[in-house]
TrEMBL record:
It comes from Ambispora gerdemannii. The keyword Metal-binding does not apply. This is 1756_t:CDS:1. It comes from the Eukaryota. It holds the Pfam family PAP2. Residues 134-271 form the Phosphatidic acid phosphatase type 2/haloperoxidase domain.
Amino acid sequence: MTNKIEYKSGFLPLFKLRRTFYNPRAKFSHWWSPFHFPSRTKRVFIAIILDWILILLMFGLTQWFFVGPKPPKAYFSINDESLKHPLVDEIISADSATVINAVGPFVLLLVLEVLFFWDRWDVYHLATGHAQSIAMSLFFTSLFWITVGGHLGLRPTFLTKCDPDPTKIIPNITYYDNSICREDLSKIEYQGFPSGHASTAFAGWVFFTLYINGKAKPWNGGAHFWKVLILLLPLSFATWISLTRVIDFRHFPYQIIIGGMIGIMAALIAFRLNFVVNGWFVALGENNDHIPAHYHFLNEIEINRSLHGGENNV
C-alpha cells in the first residue's frame, strides 16, 4: 500500500501542494510546508541573510519605539504612596545591563564553543539564536512600552520626580495627568512596564542555560549534581539583575515579572528554532537538543527523499 494520495483541487491553491500533504499515513507529511522559503539547502545564504535582516529590523524598531512614539497618557493619584519612593543611584545601569545580558553570555558561549564544541553550524545557530532571543525580548518589551505603558509604566519614583504643583490641585479630584508636574519628565519615566533589564536578563541567560543543558547532558542518569548547579547559576544571576531594579526603586515587582516572562519566552522560542528538540520547547538534555537545526534539516530532507522519491520541494 502506498502512502501517496493524489491531491486534486482544480485551480486552487495557486501554489502546488505535495501529494502527501494531507495524507495522515505519510510519516513526514507534517515536516513539509508551502512556506519553506527560502530553501535552507538550495538558498542557504539567502536564508541566513533573511535571518539577520529580521534580527536587525527588530533592533531598529526597538530603538525607534524607545525614542519615538509616546506611551498612552498616564493618570495617577498624587496621594499614591507607591509612587513616592526616594531617588537612589542605579545598581546596574542600562548600558551595563546591555553588556551583562547581551554580550556576557554570548562571549562565554563562544569560549565554550572554541574549547569543547567547535562546529561552524553550531556557531551560526548559537549566534543567531542568542541574537534572536535578545532581539525578540527587546522588541516586545519596547512594543508594550508604547501600547500598554502609561500608568502601568510609571516608576516607583514618579511622584518624587514629578513634584506636583499644589496650585493645580482641584478639590474632590483624585486623578491627574503629567500637566500637574512642576518638572518636565522624560519619556523613559513612563516606560517602566515591562522591565527591559528583566526581559534582556532572562533572554540572554536562559538561552545560555538551554544551550549548556543541551551540551552538558545533566539528566542522563549520571547523577552529575555539579552540572545542575552550573545551570542554576545563570538563572540566579538573571533573577538578581532583575531584582536590583526593585531595590533601587526603578521598577515595581509586576513590571519585573512580566519582563522576565517575555525574556524567558524569547529564549525558549529562539533555542527551539535553532536547536531541534524531541518534544516540546525544552528537552531533558539526553536527546538531540545539542544538534544545530541545520543538520536536522538536512537529515529530514534525506529521509523525506528516500520515502517520497523525486519530491524535493524544500
